[in-house]
Write a structure and sequence with these properties.
The protein has helices spanning about 10-15, 35-45, 70-85, 95-120, 125-140, 145-155, 160-185, 190-195, 225-245, 250-260, 280-285, 340-355, 360-365, 370, 390-395, 425-455; strands at about 60-65, 65-70, 205-215, 265-275, 300, 305-315, 320-330, 375-380, 405-410, 410-425, 460. By secondary structure, the chain is α+β, with helices and mostly antiparallel strands. Strands 4-3-6-5 form a four-stranded antiparallel sheet, sandwiched between helices. It has a four-stranded antiparallel sheet with strand order 8-7-10-9. Helix 8 crosses helix 16. The chain is globular, with a radius of gyration of 26 Å. The two termini are about 40 Å apart.
């Protein structure tokens, strides 16, 4: 089971400024749990009354530089934090300590959002839509329109609030990654030392065959009754019992566990995955299971997860496909409209079909300065190196052939595949995983230091 403690409230509140509506705790990283930060908030505790919806009259509770935090915002954040704790099975009382920690998190969030505006960070709209689609799916809906209809029917404007919340969360996460990465320095010598340590043994190329099934909640977690939570947990425990059977038919086990539960269970046999490709929030659970073992029900804000490690394969090599790729890019920007760029790329495509040399056309006409001088050569390209439309076209183009014109966010392209191979990247993989492990070890302190500096350099006044 997952545990929820008072020290986690500063993380939880970052997901619940308005109506968090099924966001996950792991999606956030704007928490300060150090003794220094706690000492900062202790001085404020005496001036924070025990606010509740019943006794709160809206007004300013804190000033943060040129911005204000309202009492109603604090009440909402406390309510959502308590709801998350309740959903995780560990209720938290509305105490002065809770209110102080939640207020501290609101202050930190306000400081970060101000910095986001200053540096002009704009999250990817496609990523926001993808996250909304995941939320819709977790609630048994098949489209964003259906999610919007459900949320706005319950409370007008809820969908717009959720979308704005996701945009802010993504911007804060991007800001933190930028700030932390500039502070964490990992040398090649550090990586060598890590790879020589016993801890590096876990950086193998094992493949895990996982069974992952989720019991979605009937409603948003904050609105669930105790009976509804108990019903979901009962279904999850029944499913776990069935999955413990050796060589179980997963589809039959899921169908049998469904019973009269009104929301379809999600997931099933996910096949084999490299350890690096496992979902981040589940990898720690999967990698510690023995083959055939099933996790205890994992309570999350979206539902209750059950995980079984069906099989595991160890390998000394990690082979990945690579494509030797060239491309021609015609940019779409303020100097060149989409229609003009499309006309140019179609003209180049016609020249290729009439026998023109791809390398010469790329050298002369491509707007990609990094590859044009090499005849459009991008060298060997691996999966996920390129954006999705480029990768899809690359995979569907035969060796020695070139593609039809296609569009990405950068403009219009034609690509050519010079060759394809299976490349052993075990060494690079292990070094990248070592770098990631070292980064994860150093990042929390770097984040904490940065947030303390951010707060120390701001004007903050807590009003009683």
């Amino acid at each position: 089971m997952r545990f929820f403690s008072l020290r986690q409230t500063s993380r939880a509140v970052l997901l619940s400024m308005s109506a968090s509506l099924a966001l996950t705790l792991s999606a956030q990283a704007a928490t300060v749990e150090s003794a220094a930060a706690k000492a900062t908030t202790t001085a404020d505790q005496s001036s924070v009354n025990r606010l509740t919806p019943a006794n709160s009259t809206d007004g300013i509770i804190a000033l943060v530089n040129e911005n204000a935090i309202l009492k109603s915002e604090l009440v909402d954040a406390i309510t959502q934090t308590q709801a998350r704790a309740q959903a995780a099975g560990e209720p938290i009382a509305n105490s002065p300590q809770l209110q102080s920690e939640v207020l501290n998190s609101l202050i930190l969030r306000e400081l970060q959002l101000s910095m986001v505006k200053r540096v002009g960070l704009n999250p990817d709209e496609a990523a926001i839509n993808q996250r909304l689609a995941q939320i819709a799916q977790s609630q048994g809906l098949d489209s964003l329109a259906a999610l919007q209809q459900r949320l706005d029917a319950a409370q007008p404007g809820s969908y717009a609030t959720l979308r704005a919340q996701l945009i802010e969360d993504a911007a804060i996460q991007s800001l933190q990654q930028r700030q932390i990465s500039s502070r964490v320095r990992i040398s090649e010598q550090d990586i060598d030392a890590f790879l020589a340590s016993p801890e590096a043994k876990r950086l193998n190329q094992s493949e895990y065959q996982t069974i992952h099934v989720r019991v979605p909640y009937i409603d948003d977690y904050s609105r669930l009754s105790e009976a509804q939570r108990a019903e979901a947990l009962k279904v999850a425990e029944a499913l776990r019992t069935r999955l413990l059977v050796p060589n179980v038919d997963v589809a039959e086990a899921v169908a049998a566990s469904q019973g009269n539960y009104p929301i379809p269970l999600q997931g099933g046999d996910m096949g084999f995955h490299k350890s690096a490709a496992l979902p981040t929030e589940l990898s720690s659970e999967i990698t510690k299971l023995d083959v055939g073992a099933v996790s205890e029900p994992l309570v999350t804000p979206e539902g209750i997860d059950i995980i079984k490690l069906a099989d595991k394969k160890d390998s000394d090599k990690m082979l990945i496909p690579q494509w030797h790729t060239r491309h021609i890019l015609v940019k779409v920007d303020e100097l060149q409209t989409d229609a003009l760029a499309e006309q140019k790329i179609n003209d180049l495509y016609a020249q290729l079909r009439n026998g023109a040399d791809f390398n010469s056309l790329a050298s002369t006409y491509s707007d990609d300065p990094g590859s044009a001088g090499r005849g459009g050569d991008l060298d060997w390209v691996s999966e996920q190196d390129m954006i999705a439309p480029f990768e899809a076209t690359m995979k569907n183009t035969a060796v020695g052939d070139y593609s039809a014109p296609f569009k990405t966010q950068f403009g219009w392209h034609i690509l050519k595949i010079e060759g394809k191979r299976q490349q052993d990247v075990s060494t690079e993989y292990r070094r990248n995983m070592a770098r990631q492990a070292l980064y994860q070890r150093l990042a929390p302190q770097a984040k904490e230091d940065w947030l303390q500096e951010l707060r120390a350099g701001a004007y903050i006044q807590v009003l009683g």
